[in-house]
Design a protein that fits this description.
The complex is a heterodimer of chains A (83) and B (133). Chain A is mainly α and 83 residues long. Helices cover 70% and strands 0% of the residues of chain A. Helices cover 75% and strands 0% of the residues of chain B.
Chain lengths: 83, 133
């Protein structure tokens, strides 16, 4: 194995240190971006940079807002049940 | 369409699907959608590599996490090689990084499945529109 290959693979052999805390939820943002990009690619027959970026941003925002609203509703529901 | 033409068309669709599975974006490249191919390749490979970086190669577990492995396999057949590597047990994997890594790599696989279906659909659509069926 060459030195370059060794260093590339070495990056993927030890897990990152991620604690269980509210900040770890932020890991969903890059994933939502990926989903928004790939989904819009499959729905757009001809890609033009500005229009494509705008649509991706709208979808990204919609998903994040929907998830935030869902989280608030579930939190409120849990609070009502337990209080 | 004649019988021969239909057979060639079906073979082409299978080829597009296989290419899209082997290398993310290659299916779209085969139907001459270069921008789509580049965006798909970069996004899916980046998502998959992010998952591996967070959780290590050990998150590709073909024995203990079979449903996840099936989704991860949708990225490329090359993932099976990583699965064999991780079976040696040399790669540490635990707790939260394992969860996040599995989610990233599996979602990347499912997104590639969407792209495979999309490439095959567009290949079929292009053909039927050309001959007016």
């Amino acid at each position: 194995m060459s030195i370059v290959n060794f260093f590339i693979i070495a990056n993927f052999t030890v897990p990152e240190k991620i604690d269980v805390n509210p900040q770890s939820i932020l890991w969903l943002l890059p994933l939502v971006a990926s989903i928004a990009i790939v989904y819009k690619v499959t729905k757009t027959p001809k890609i033009k940079a500005s229009a494509f970026l705008k649509e991706v941003a709208i979808l990204f925002g919609s998903i994040v807002v929907f998830m935030a609203v869902t989280a608030i509703v579930l939190y409120a529901l849990a609070w009502l049940i337990t209080e | 369409m004649t019988q021969r033409s239909k057979e060639v068309h079906t073979l082409f669709l299978i080829l597009v699907g296989l290419l899209a599975w082997i290398v993310p974006g290659a299916g779209h490249l085969a139907i001459n959608k270069k921008k789509h191919a580049v965006i798909i390749f970069v996004t899916i490979v980046l998502t998959f590599c992010t998952g591996l970086y967070i959780g290590s190669v050990g998150i590709i577990d073909s024995v203990g996490a079979k449903p996840w492995f099936i989704a991860q396999l949708m990225n490329s057949p090359a993932v099976a090689t990583l699965g064999r590597m991780s079976q040696t047990g040399d790669y540490a994997v635990y707790a939260k990084p394992n969860e996040i890594g599995q989610i990233y790599t599996s979602i990347a696989g499912l997104l590639n499945l969407l792209c495979i279906v999309n490439a095959v659909y567009w290949a079929h659509l292009r053909r039927t529109q050309t001959i007016g069926v």
